Amino acid sequence: MGGITVLAAVVAIFAVVFVAKFLARSLRLVLILLIMILAAVFFLDISLSTVVGGIKNAVLAYI
Questions:
Q1: pLDDT tens across 13-57, in order?
Q2: Cβ-count burial of 10 within 10 angstroms (0-12 exposed, 13-18 middle, 19+ buried)?
Q3: How far apart are CA 8 and CA 46, in angstroms?
Q4: From CA 10, how far away is CA 40, in angstroms rounded?
Q5: Under a CB-based contact definition with an 8 Å cutoff, are residues 10 and 4 in contact?
Q6: CA-CA distance, 25 to 36, in Å (whole number)?
């Protein structure tokens, strides 16, 4: 995978999280987002530890 694909995936993930933060703070939506992000990680074959660490930090920041 090229750097552009990874960059696009990261931007898309942050965009989804940003929009979801304003739409609702329900736990169900957060779980759906996490599932979608993990699915994207596996499909795009990004470094799992880096993405999981970023997601964990983002979730802790929002809670």
A1: 887 777 777 666 666 777 787 888 777 777 666 566 676 777 788
A2: middle
A3: 12
A4: 10
A5: no
A6: 16
For residue 53, give both structure tokens: 């660490």
51, 41 contact by CB (below 8 A): yes
What would the two tokens of residue 57 be? 């930090």
Instruction: Give the start-to-end residue ranges of the domains of the chain.
Output: 3-62
Counting every residue, how long is the chain? 63
Q: pTM, whole model, 2 decimals?
A: 0.33
Spatial CB neighbours of 57, under 8 Å, sequence gap ≥ 6: none
Which pair of structure tokens corresponds to residue 11?
């931007």
